[in-house]
Recover the amino acids of this structure.
């Protein structure tokens, strides 16, 4: 059972639970998916195999290469892409995702409208503001599903920061909130980390909630204050990958033929 299988099983067991449904879509977005192609990729251009069905047009994706091979009855050309990249590629194309069709417990169809919703949700940007923290304290009574969503989301942020601390914060001027402070973020990773926190809120069903995000060096006195009172999240270390599949870079997604 893969994380996608488990999320699908939880959604199927509680069809009226919006949180379970959102968690499944989050797993789709965060998973590396293998897209069935009609031919080997040519540079940054992909030619996905499209299936015409009574429910619409779909491309086939699997969360394991061996599952795609089982569907295709042997070797087949494919590209490995994140679910978020696929959603952005397919949005507005009238094409949905056939996920693990008939080869796994998570076999499901995500229609074009749902793909468009997912792409739009993932494309949202957090608002920016400036404020100076005055007092820090242990985090308050936050929903358990939000803490689990943050933990799962930060586990996918490999190499983007050393750690993060969640704390209650009071700002100069009296404003209060919760602060998720990243320590030693990788250069240029601030936007991706802020979006990850926003997605944790959205996919936990708490889009109207707020968590402020800040960035500090480990040598900053604020990091020591956060370590004394904050809830700590350790982010996985970066491990270099030898091959970079088409579209893995957010600034140069693959093109559909």
């Amino acid at each position: 059972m893969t994380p996608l299988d488990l999320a699908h099983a939880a959604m199927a067991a509680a069809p009226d639970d919006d949180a379970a449904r959102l968690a499944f879509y989050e797993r789709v977005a965060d998973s590396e998916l293998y897209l069935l192609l009609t031919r080997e990729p040519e540079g940054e251009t992909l030619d996905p195999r499209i299936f015409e069905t009574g429910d619409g047009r779909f491309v086939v994706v699997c969360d394991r290469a061996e599952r795609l091979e089982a569907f295709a009855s042997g070797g087949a050309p494919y590209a490995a892409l994140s679910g978020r990249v696929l959603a952005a590629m397919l949005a507005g194309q009238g094409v949905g995702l056939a996920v693990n069709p008939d080869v796994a417990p998570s076999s499901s169809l995500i229609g074009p409208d749902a793909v468009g919703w997912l792409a739009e949700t993932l494309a949202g940007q957090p608002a920016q503001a400036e404020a100076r923290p005055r007092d820090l304290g242990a985090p308050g009574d936050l929903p358990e599903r939000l803490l689990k969503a943050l933990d799962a989301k930060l586990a996918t942020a490999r190499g983007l920061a050393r750690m993060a601390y969640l704390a209650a914060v009071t700002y100069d001027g009296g404003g209060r909130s919760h602060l998720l402070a990243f320590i030693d973020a990788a250069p240029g990773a601030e936007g991706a980390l802020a979006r990850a926190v926003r997605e944790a809120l959205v996919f936990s069903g708490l889009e109207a909630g707020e968590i402020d995000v800040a960035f500090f060096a480990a040598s900053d006195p604020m990091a020591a204050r956060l370590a004394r009172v904050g809830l700590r999240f350790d982010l996985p270390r970066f491990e270099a990958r030898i091959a970079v599949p088409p579209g893995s870079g957010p600034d140069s997604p693959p093109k559909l033929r």
Q: What stands out?
A: The domain at 133-234 is CATH 3.30.70 (Alpha-Beta Plaits). Confidence is low (pLDDT under 50) at residues 240-253. The radius of gyration is 20 Å.
